[in-house]
Amino acid sequence: QGNINDIDKQEVYILNAVVDIVTKNEKCTNFVMLVDEFEEITIDRLKQVDKDTYIRNLRSFIDRDKNWCCVFAMTGLAFQKIELFSPPLADRIQDKVIDLGPLDEKTIKQIIYNYLSLARENNNRGIYPFDDTAINALLNVKDPAQKGLPRFVLKSCYQLLQRAVDNLPNGDVIDESFVKEYSVSLPNHQRSF
Predict the structure, then answer these.
(1) Rg for the chain (alpha carbons), in Å?
(2) Rounded Cα distance, 70 and 26, in Å
(3) Which residues of 22-55 are buried (b: 16+ CB within 10 A; e: fewer)?
(4) Angle, nearest 10°, between helix axes 4-26 and 48-64?
(5) Beta carbons of 73 and 36 less than 8 angstroms apart
(6) pLDDT at residue number 135
(7) Are 183 and 134 in contact (CB under 8 A)?
(8) What is the DSSP letter of 131?
(9) pTM of the predicted model as reported, rounded to 2 decimal places
(10) H-run or E-run covering 76
(11) What's the pLDDT tens digit per position in 15-49?
(12) What angle do CA 81, 82, 86 make, to 5 degrees?
C-alpha cells in the first residue's frame, strides 16, 4: 500500500535489513549482487514508469551503498540501449566491462562436448551426433544478436537433439541440413538460419 515513494523506501529497507542480518550473523562486510539478464529492462515487457522506477532505485542504490559490488550480465546490444535511454546508469555500471564476445567454433565444440559428456558414461564419441557443418550452421545465424551466443547455441542443440530422437535415422548425424530443416520449429529462433 502507499505511493511509489513508499515502495522505493520499502525496497531499500528490505535490502538494508538483509545486509544487517548477514553482517551480524555471518560476519560479512562486503556483498556481491549479481543481476542476470539485465537486458530485460531494454525490451518492452515493463511499463515505462516501472523501468524509470527500477533505474532510479538502482542508481540510488549504487550511489549510496558502497559495501556492494554489483555485477550486471547482459548482451552488448542491451548495454548500448541502456547508454541511450539512461546515460547516468550506464556510467555507473560500466566501471569494469568484461566483454565475453561471441563464442568461436572451438569453444562451442568444447561446450557441446562437455554437456554431452554429462549424459555419457564413456565419451569417446566427441560431439556426435553433431558434425562440423551443424556447428557452422549454429554459428552463422542471420540474427547478429544470436551469433555465437551460448544460450542460443545450447538451447538449439538441446532442441535439435530432441528432434533427432524422432527424426534422425539411427547412426546419422545432425548436420547443417538437419539444423536448417528443424530450426523452423525451434521456438524464438524461427528463420534464424
Answers:
(1) 22
(2) 20
(3) eeeeeeeeeeeeeeeebbebbeeeeeeeebebeb
(4) 40
(5) yes
(6) 93
(7) no
(8) -
(9) 0.60
(10) helix 76-85
(11) 778 878 888 888 777 778 788 888 777 777 778 88
(12) 125
Give just the sign of the alpha carbon dihedral 167, 114, 122, 126.
positive
- Give, in order, the Cα–Cα distances in Å from 73 to each of 54, 70, 79, 94: 16, 10, 10, 11
Query: Amino acid letter at 99?
Result: D
Most confident of 49-53, 64-68, 164-168: 164-168
Q: Look at the alpha carbons of 147, 149, 154, 156 in this order and tell me if their dihedral is positive or negative.
A: negative
CA distance 165 to 177: 16
Interval 69-120: pLDDT, tens: 888 888 778 888 888 888 888 888 888 888 877 889 999 999 999 999 988 8
Cα separation, 30 vs 36, in Å, equals 19
Cell numbers representing residue 10 in the block:
520499502
Residue with the three cell numbers 564413456: 122
CA–CA distance, 160 with 167 (Å, rounded to integer): 10
